[in-house]
Amino acid sequence: MMGKRLLLALTLALTANQALAADTLRCGSQLISVGDRSSEVLHKCGEPVSRDLLGYKRSADRREEFQVEEWTYGPNGGMYQYLRFEGNRLVQITSKRGN
Hints:
Blueprint: H1 2-21, E1 24-27, E2 30-33, H2 38-45, E3 50-58, E4 65-76, E5 79-86, E6 89-97
Antiparallel strand pairs: 1-2, 3-4, 4-5, 5-6
């Protein structure tokens, strides 16, 4: 019984750790996180390989529009990182292996 509890606890800890990794990215010795401003990301990670304007998104109350951008970094170890900004705030970090 004790072994099953330990295994369950380790599985939950690893799952929680993986979810956190999707919300952060290491740039050299710096760490960026979802919620950071684009100026902070630029300061910590430098200029991206590309910046793509994806369009605009309306706020929940439909009174404001936010610019939506995707910045690409890499390849780093064969991986590209895609950072999505809405209204100058980092909202998503995804990684994909390059060709």
